Amino acid sequence: MTRTAKIAGFAVAVALALTGCGAPAADVAGAAAEMVALQEVGYTADAGGDSPGTRPRAVRKLLRKNTLHGEVVVRNREGQDSTIVVQRGDVTAADDKGFTVRSADGFELTWTYGEKARVVDNREKAGRDAVRTGVKIGVGGVRDGSATTARLIIVG
User: How confident is the model at residue 3 (pLDDT cuts 50, 70, 90)?
Assistant: First the structure.
């Protein structure tokens, strides 16, 4: 696996942890996601616990509860940019090549399955048939031009 693929995979995992899709994140991924979120809202590691401002646990809870979709651009060590996309919502259409997800705010995006797309249902590996119309999912992947390719799909 190339360094670019590893970076993109980690970014997808962190992004999904931020959106709270599926099972609770592992300790390392959860800590990384929390730190990124805290920095984004202005909380720094050197800020004391008694200082006014946003509390870390509250920020993480809000992000998990309220995040519907988003994207972030990451740059790897070779200087190449990748757009990481995440979305949570209901599947409105699905076939063997891809699926469409509608978030609670009405945003809709069509995804294609990536070459090595992983589907997880109840913390276990599942097949693409688990992604069907009416199912609530969290999905993360990459955007290249107008194509959005799923790399990780969490059912539930």
Answer: low
**Residue 9: band (very low, low, confident or very high) from pLDDT cuts 50, 70, 90:** low
DSSP state of 122: T
Structural domains of the chain, with CATH: 3-155 (2.40.50.320)
Report field, pTM of the whole predicted structure over 0.70: no
Tell me the C-alpha distance between 21 and 138, whole Å: 5
3-state secondary structure of 114: strand
Evaluate whether 30 touches 63 at the Cβ level (below 8 Å). Answer: no
Q: Cβ distance 115 to 151 under 8 Å?
A: no
Surface-to-core class of residue 54, CB atoms within 10 Å of its CB (0-12 exposed, 13-18 middle, 19+ buried): middle
**Dihedral pair phi/psi, residue 47, rounded to 5°:** -75, 135
Work out the pLDDT band at 23, boundaries 50, 70, 90: very low
Asked whether residue 148 carries a pLDDT value surpassing 90, the answer given is yes
Which residues, in sequence order, are CB contacts of 134 under 8 Å at separation 6+? 90, 91
